[in-house]
């Protein structure tokens, strides 16, 4: 069932307590209650500190280089494991979404993609149960190497190009588990008009 966005929430926020923060996120314990005797005094909410129009806090891009999809190999401390992911990041002040995604693409991969070759793939909430963030997904076709890849963020290890069969084998083999990456791949490979997902 699709929500219209006007439905009333089934519970009330009684109190919000900031319990931790860093440069990018606030972490809250929300005390929520309902008429049906639901009482949760410590509902965990992780919220980005900056949002832009339509509630977006970040962008992610699926880069295509000579018909192959580029993925980053990243060690993620939170899960104590390696992850294959598309480039992504936060939107900086004054940037529109396409500028932001082009910048993140170059910073994380050394790839450039003309703005006219960056197309929207819709949006997603990465973890609606905890994270109050919304990410705009894009695909960048005809991307090209402008500078050699170099790992410049914590955990980043390398970048590899995969053809469609290799990508699907990784998905079926549970080697790709990142939600933004899975959704972007699905929408890029299976939808006739990705813009319809906006």
Average of the residue pLDDT scores? 91
Structural class: alpha+beta
Report how far apart the termini are: 17 Å
Total number of helices:
3
CATH architecture term of the largest domain: Alpha-Beta Complex
Question: What percentage of amino acids are in beta strands?
Answer: 35-45%
Number of strands: 12
What's the number of domains?
2
Spans of at least 5 consecutive residues whose pLDDT stays below 50 are 194-198
Portion in helices: 10-25%
Q: Which shape, going by the Cα principal axes?
A: elongated
Task: Sum up the structure in keywords.
39% strand; 3 helices; hydrolase activity; alpha+beta; NUDIX_hydrolase-like_dom_sf; three-stranded antiparallel beta sheet; Nudix_hydrolase; Nucleoside Triphosphate Pyrophosphohydrolase; disordered C terminus; 198 residues; seven-stranded mixed beta sheet; 2 domains; GDP-mannose pyrophosphatase; hydrolase
């Amino acid at each position: 069932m699709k929500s219209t966005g006007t439905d009333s929430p089934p519970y009330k926020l009684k109190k919000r307590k900031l319990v931790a923060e860093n440069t990018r996120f606030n972490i809250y314990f929300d005390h929520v209650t309902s008429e049906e005797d639901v009482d949760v005094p410590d509902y965990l909410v992780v919220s980005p500190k900056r949002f832009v129009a339509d509630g977006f806090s970040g962008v992610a891009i699926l880069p295509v280089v000579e018909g192959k999809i580029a993925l980053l190999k990243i060690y993620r401390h939170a899960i104590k494991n390696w992850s294959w992911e598309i480039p992504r990041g936060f939107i900086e002040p004054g940037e529109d979404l396409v500028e932001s995604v082009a910048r993140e693409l170059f910073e994380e991969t050394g790839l450039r993609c003309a703005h006219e070759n960056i197309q929207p793939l819709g949006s997603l909430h990465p973890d609606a149960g905890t994270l109050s963030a919304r990410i705009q997904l894009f695909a960048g076709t005809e991307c090209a190497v402008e500078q050699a890849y170099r790992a410049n963020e914590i955990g980043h290890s390398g970048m590899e190009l995969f053809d469609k069969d290799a990508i699907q084998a990784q998905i079926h083999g549970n080697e790709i588990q990142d939600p933004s990456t899975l959704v972007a791949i699905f929408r890029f490979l299976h939808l006739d008009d990705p813009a319809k997902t906006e």
